[in-house]
Fold this sequence. Notes:
Layout: H1 3-31, H2 50-66, H3 71-81, H4 83-94, H5 97-105, H6 116-119, H7 127-138, H8 154-165, H9 167-174, H10 180-193, H11 197-208, H12 212-231, H13 249-256
Amino acid sequence: MSSSALKQTSSRLSRSFLSRTSRAISTRQLSSNSEPFYGSPREERKHLSPLQSISLAVYSATNAFLNPERHDMVATLAEVTGEVSLQNILLEMKNDHVGQRILLDKPRVDTASIDIDALGQLPENTFGYGYYKFLKHHGFNPDERAKVKYIQDEELHYVMTRYRQSHDFFHVVTDLPPSIPGELALKYVELFQIGLPVCALSATVGSMKLNAEDRKIWKEKYLPWAIRVGKGGKKWMNVYWEQEFETDLQELRTKLGIETAPTL
């Protein structure tokens, strides 16, 4: 091939490459609502057909049963089996004046929204300081909560997110440790408070994994308490937890009708 022909071929390839690159960048910009393609990633949501939902429910339930510590499977199961419960929670929130504000404001429990270190400067008797101490003592980070993937409806997506992100608040007001018996007791409280089917599965399957001593403690101490607390008091999904950070922790418990967990 002559030198002239080589130059012409190279020129055509360059124009073709630039054209494809330009179209690719344009497509990426349009698909992100005109934001730069290098902008912050959006939450990925996966649409499931009814058959896929059933298959995923069976798969996640099986794995959660075999290994209750597979938090990803438990989270997935909660999403694919919880629509009816989430609809009920949403209705309760819409019928409550505080719940309405939560749905309107859509607060997030993460380090971008909450200054965790600032909570450590609050008086030690406050709910906010109790939350700070709980996170620091156990090495927890609110940013590490699993994202909601399989719920398409915007309102239900937020309700599930709010429930999931509020879990550590529940630990603080109940004074339950994040031990296996403590988590199981909290799941029973959530079963009556929230009503998600996965709470029943987690509590039932998890109790089977306890040794004899822990099972005795759970049945005799934690379970009766969990049923009492779960069935009584204000619905926790209608509590604007972030606005209670400066509230005396014991006063908050009294206001919500929460009896602290048994001290073992």
